[in-house]
């Protein structure tokens, strides 16, 4: 461990209630250091304007969805900004150039079609052989351009996703926000699915869309000129009059595309809504499956398989229902798209047939017109072919934007004094930890713990007690910096390290060595040091398995996990330890051995324990009691459990009883002192 000034920070990225903290920086420093290549944090967007009463619920929902798409682009577009990827613009310009070159090759093949069929019509063998030879480089060039275009497009998608994912994860993990999201309201459920799956689609699809739109525009612009030039005007005799339609092939192509596109828009008007609902039910189903896996032991011991099966069946039924609705939308859109695909190649041939039969158009021109019409129709029908995916992108972009909005709210609260934030700083004098006028509240301002003032000296072992729901664990989280809302301050002694042991220790994936060393690197200690730590906590029988990569979170029992957490203490040698029901899974004898071991191995350490067991009093020098009251829990008792040679500097103006509890506590507990 380094000698840098400490800062309590959570190291549990998956189970905030089971986090262990090894603080190595100054406690008052609240900003998390971003990993390399992470863009600087952006200023949170302005608050969402609440819809007025004049809007109907449907209009308010549309306004919300519109803002969500705007919120996504506020962050996503910075990939091309000064803080974005240095390869973003070169790759983008290269992709646009390749799209233009590809359209040029399409035009070349279109001309080749005219030439080869004209030569066949004239029985010109020499021209046919020559054009056959020319066809090879045309195909090779087209394949090379398209292949390079795909590689460059996917590179942009990959790098954009990497950049934005890193930025979102950086904001998600900063200042314990990944934990605080569990404490506030909002549409941010299953953030792991939003970051992994929704963000992937949200960054892949726009690149495809923009490349497709530009390609379609260039192709349509080029081959409309071809159609206008080849087709010319069409003269039709109607009721004794002649009607001339200039550029009849172009007019037909535009009308045909307008009919198919409008039909698709009408038939698939609910596609976005259905796709978004399907994605949400899929995420909920994944979450339910993950929840069962993570709590498999408890479910098995309680025999809850049938109840879990029913819950999974209910969740999966919702998925199937949304899939059925989505299937209907696909059926309707397929009806339009497939019908268009079959009809489009025939229309230009039928339109050009009269001119070919009368001799004003050659076979080559007919085939060139058919090829150009198909390309123009494909360009105009781009929406028809991509409407389902566009709907899926809308849903995914809104889901990741909802998570961003929740992070915006937390970030805005960190920078605002409207709600109240717990300050963090350094203690004065020799005090290891002090809570000055500390009040802890929910994000809506509801008080949980109020007006707590305590000073803890180096080497003190303080037991925090109180009935369930009195705010003990909340107070611990406020000390660790995981709970930001409230008032007052939490101050640490400079150059001291804090380590937290929760009731449910976090066991990372990988080897047992990594699990013991966490949150430090697995190779920070030798095998002998790790084995010695395991031996001291009664896990010597695992020494032969420290290099074994296994699902230790599922393999170890609750008691073994708590013993392993104590082994981490011996490796990290912190200055302050916070134990939050850290021995609840141990029997009384094992609990005594763990506490005696800590006192013996780390005699100078300061301990703050949260526990219900009265047996733990013997291992502490002081006891603080919280009592749940209307308006928030309060500190109602602070007594010495062992006699101290000098007077302690204790702030206790919130104590309601002035009955000298320390003397009574000293007399009644002197016999229980561990010495």
Automatic annotation (TrEMBL):
Taxonomy of the source species: Bacteria, Pseudomonadati, Pseudomonadota, Alphaproteobacteria, Hyphomicrobiales
Superkingdom of this protein's organism: Bacteria
Primary location: membrane
Xref: Pfam families: ABC_membrane_2, ABC_tran
Gene3D superfamilies on file: ABC transporter type 1, transmembrane domain, P-loop containing nucleotide triphosphate hydrolases
Compositionally biased spans, kind Polar residues: 666-675
Family assignment from sequence similarity: Belongs to the ABC transporter superfamily.
GO molecular function: ABC-type transporter activity; ATP binding; ATP hydrolysis activity
GO cellular component terms given for this protein: plasma membrane
Species in which this protein is naturally found: Rhizobium acidisoli
UniProt keyword terms in alphabetical order: ATP-binding, Membrane, Nucleotide-binding, Transmembrane, Transmembrane helix, Transport
Membrane topology annotation: Multi-pass membrane protein
Region (Disordered): 1-57, 655-675
Spans through the membrane: 87-109, 129-152, 209-230, 236-259, 335-357
Compositional bias segments (type: Pro residues): 33-48
Cell cycle among keywords: no
Domain ABC transporter: 433-655
Listed SUPFAM superfamilies: ABC transporter transmembrane region (SSF90123), P-loop containing nucleoside triphosphate hydrolases (SSF52540)
Protein name per its UniProtKB record: ABC transporter ATP-binding protein/permease
Compartment annotation: Cell membrane
Domain ABC transmembrane type-1: start-end pairs: 93-392
């Amino acid at each position: 461990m380094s000698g840098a000034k400490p800062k309590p920070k959570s190291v549990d990225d998956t189970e905030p209630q089971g986090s262990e903290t090894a603080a190595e920086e100054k406690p008052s420093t609240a900003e998390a250091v971003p990993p390399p290549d992470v863009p600087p944090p952006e200023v949170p967007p302005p608050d969402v304007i609440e819809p007025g009463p004049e809007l109907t619920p449907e209009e308010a929902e549309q306004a919300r969805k519109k803002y969500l798409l705007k919120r996504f682009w506020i962050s996503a577009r910075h990939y091309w900004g000064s803080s974005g990827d240095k390869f973003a613009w070169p790759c983008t310009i290269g992709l646009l150039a390749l799209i233009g070159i590809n359209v040029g090759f399409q035009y070349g093949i279109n001309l080749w079609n005219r030439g080869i069929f004209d030569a066949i019509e004239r029985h010109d063998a020499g021209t046919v052989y020559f054009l056959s030879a020319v066809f090879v480089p045309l195909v090779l060039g087209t394949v090379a351009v398209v292949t390079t275009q795909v590689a460059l497009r996917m590179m942009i998608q990959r790098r954009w996703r990497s950049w934005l994912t890193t930025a979102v994860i950086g904001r998600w993990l900063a200042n314990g926000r990944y934990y605080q999201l569990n404490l506030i309201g909002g549409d941010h459920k299953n953030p792991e699915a939003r970051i992994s799956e929704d963000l992937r689609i949200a960054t892949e699809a726009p690149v495809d869309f923009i490349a497709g739109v530009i390609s379609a525009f260039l192709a349509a612009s080029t081959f409309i000129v071809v159609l206008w030039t080849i087709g010319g005007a069409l003269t039709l005799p109607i009721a004794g009059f002649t009607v001339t339609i200039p550029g009849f092939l172009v007019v037909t192509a535009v009308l045909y595309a307008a009919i198919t596109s409008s039909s698709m828009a009408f038939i698939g008007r609910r596609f976005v809504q259905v796709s978004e609902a399907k994605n949400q039910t899929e995420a909920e189903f994944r979450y339910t499956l993950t929840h069962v896996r993570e709590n498999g032991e408890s479910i098995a011991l309680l025999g809850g398989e049938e109840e879990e099966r029913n819950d999974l069946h209910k969740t999966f039924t919702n998925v199937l229902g949304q899939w059925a609705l989505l299937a209907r939308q696909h059926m309707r859109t397929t009806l339009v798209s497939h019908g268009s695909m079959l009809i489009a190649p025939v229309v230009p041939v039928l339109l050009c047939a009269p001119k070919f039969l009368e001799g004003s158009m050659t076979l080559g021109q007919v085939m060139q017109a058919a090829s150009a019409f198909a390309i123009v129709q494909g360009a105009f029908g781009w929406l028809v072919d991509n409407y389902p995916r566009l709907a899926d992108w809308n849903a995914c972009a809104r889901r990741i934007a909802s998570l961003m909005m929740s992070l915006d709210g937390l970030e805005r609260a960190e920078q605002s004094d409207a709600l109240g934030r717990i300050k963090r700083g350094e203690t004065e004098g020799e005090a290891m930890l002090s809570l000055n006028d500390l009040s802890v509240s929910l994000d809506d301002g509801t008080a949980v713990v109020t007006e707590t003032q305590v000073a803890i000296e180096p080497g003190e072992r303080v037991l925090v007690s109180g009935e369930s729901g009195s705010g003990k664990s909340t107070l611990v989280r406020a000390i660790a910096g995981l709970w930001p809302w409230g008032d007052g301050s939490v101050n640490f002694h400079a150059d001291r390290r804090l380590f937290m042991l929760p009731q449910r220790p976090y066991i990372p994936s990988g080897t047992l060595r990594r699990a013991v060393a966490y949150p430090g690197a697995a190779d920070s200690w030798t095998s002998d040091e790790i084995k010695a730590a395991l031996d001291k906590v009664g896990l010597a029988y695992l020494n032969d398995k420290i290099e074994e990569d296994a699902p230790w979170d599922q393999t170890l029992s609750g008691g073994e996990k708590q013993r392993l957490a104590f082994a981490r203490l011996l490796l990290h040698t912190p200055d302050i330890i916070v134990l939050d029901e850290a021995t609840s899974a141990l029997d009384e004898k094992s609990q005594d051995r763990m506490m005696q071991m800590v006192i013996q191995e780390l005699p100078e350490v300061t301990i703050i324990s949260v526990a219900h067991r009265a047996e733990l009093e013997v291992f502490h020098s002081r006891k603080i009691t919280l009592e749940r009251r209307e308006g928030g829990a309060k500190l109602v008792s602070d007594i010495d459990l062992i006699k101290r040679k000098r007077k302690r500097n204790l702030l206790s103006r919130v104590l309601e009883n002035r009955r000298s509890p320390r003397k009574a506590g000293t007399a009644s507990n002197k016999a229980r002192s561990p010495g």
